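Notes from the pairing session

We agreed to fold both candidates in a single pass and log them together. This is the raw record for the first candidate, unedited. Please don't reformat it; downstream parsing expects exactly this layout.

Candidate A
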Amino acid sequence: MAFLFEILRRAAGDLMRPQVLTIMFLPMLLALMLWGGLFWGFGTVWVAGLEGVFNDSPLPGWVGPGIAGWVVGMGVYTVLILLLLPAIYLTALFITSLVFMPILLSVVAHRHYPALGRHYGGSFLGSLGNGLYALVIYLLIWLITLPFWLLGPFGVGIAILLNAWLNQRLFLYDALAEHASKEELATLRAEGGWPLYGLAAFLGLLHLVPVINFFAPIYMGLVFTHYGLGQLARARGEATT
């Protein structure tokens, strides 16, 4: 556990590096701009479509004509929120993975692992494929389990586990792609165990905290870079700084 706290501490310190400060809020802002633009362009269509689904369901008959309009309206905007918030979250993570992880990797490697050899076991195409695979699996499971997300603690548990899987799957590849060989990359990703998933679950919770959620993707990228390079250095028996 001590090494996980050390990783979190080091990543927090690296947030203050000039290269990181300039990009700290960009993933979330870009994701908000993208989905805000889509909602501005297609929001009326989305709302009308969801209203049609609710009106064609048995719900208006169950609640009665007096409050059916209010219930349908609440249901429509509740579903929109449940759809848009994960979409913004996923978009910010994907942007961080593809665009900003090389910057974060450069900061962490130069400062803490300057002697760690580079074997280039991964690539941009590998990162893109890994990211798309993670997003597709995440969305499929999210859609299947969506009804359970409304069941209080049970839904929260599903969300935490699913986000933990996504976070480690998405970022660990990028953290190791430049320094690890293909064999090392496969081994370290397979051997993560509970420390890796526990770390990923904790980082996923940061997206629920106001203000912090705006720079959580960048912080997450730093944490996984520290974790990945640290594990690689230990596997090779090399020292860190």
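Candidate B (folded immediately after A)
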Amino acid sequence: MTTHLQAGRRFGQVSRTLKGLTGALLLASIPVLSQAATFTINFDNAGAFSGTPPSQPADPNAVYATATFQDTGANEVTLTMSVMNNILSGAYVNDWYFNVAGVNFNQLTETFVSGVQALTATDSSNAYKADGTGGMFDVYFGFATSNPGQLAAGATSVYKFTGNGLTANSFNSLSVPDNGGGGNYVGAVHVQGYSSSVWLYGNPPPVRVPEPVPLGLLGLGMLGIAISRRQKKRS
């Protein structure tokens, strides 16, 4: 009889442990979703809408310039414009265009932080047109076409934006189409420094959204934890 009782107790302890672990694992599998702190725009030859793209990189989908907006404080966003080393030798980015939504342009400011400083850094609602069918943008950076000042391979330019209610997601906005119907881009760049030049629109990288755990599994996990705790109190 004693042996059976001890075995039953051990089985109960194992059962309680397994139930607790099951609940914990189920809860741990639930993705934690939070507001994105950054917004990135990628530029590649596949986004060409005017001119002739450089021959390198050979893969038209290879990203060779990025613009990353990051929340760095209340009403403060830091922009990093980067040109990768895979761009054609001698090529550089001359002009960058962006959009911003939900802000008062009279209160929006951009301050140079580090890297290559633009000759022009300005903003105004739908005031800056990209070439051809690029559309109208709100923010413009113009860099030098000769050194010093080129934004060429391996170079970066960092600016800080401030404005009431401003976040990185404020720049996830589309340009206004021009009269020809082109536009609706989150950003654009002008690349030159080789035998031709090209205007590219930018695309945000694909975002992988975690799949939510079904409510049934969540309920089972909570139930397992509750049963485990109740049995511990009884013992």
